[in-house]
Structure formats: structure tokens, C-alpha cells
Amino acid sequence: MSLAIKILGTGCPKCQSMVSIVQKVVKENNIDATVEKVEDIMEIMKYNIMTTPALVVNNEVTIKGRVPSGEEILALLN
Fold this sequence. Notes:
alpha+beta; globular; Glutaredoxin
């Protein structure tokens, strides 16, 4: 089953950093997932978060307001 991963953020350095970490973890571990970057503020607001970046996995907000480590992301996706 493919995971639907969304990174919510307006394009700040922390958001960019989260995108690259998530993409790296997905690629290195052959995880079946689609990674989408969401920059539209109206779309981000639908998730009811106040701080970005945020990581959404299968429509569930898992991390918000910080950049997680690669290990933390891997643990979330497995």
C-alpha cells in the first residue's frame, strides 16, 4: 500500500529541509510513497496547524513546527 505523504510549508528553509530529508528516507528505504509539497496557505489551513513545516502521512498530521531526523521519519513510515 502506497503512503500519501504531504509536507506543509510555504517554502521556508526549514520546509525545504524537511522535503529533502523525507525524499531521502523514502528513496533510500524503497518506501512505496508519494511525496507532495503543499505551499498553498488555504490548503495548509485545512490541516488546522499553526506552525510549519508539518508532515502529513495518509491525511494524519504526524509532526508540526520542526524538522525531524531521518530516523524519526523512517520510524513513522514503517
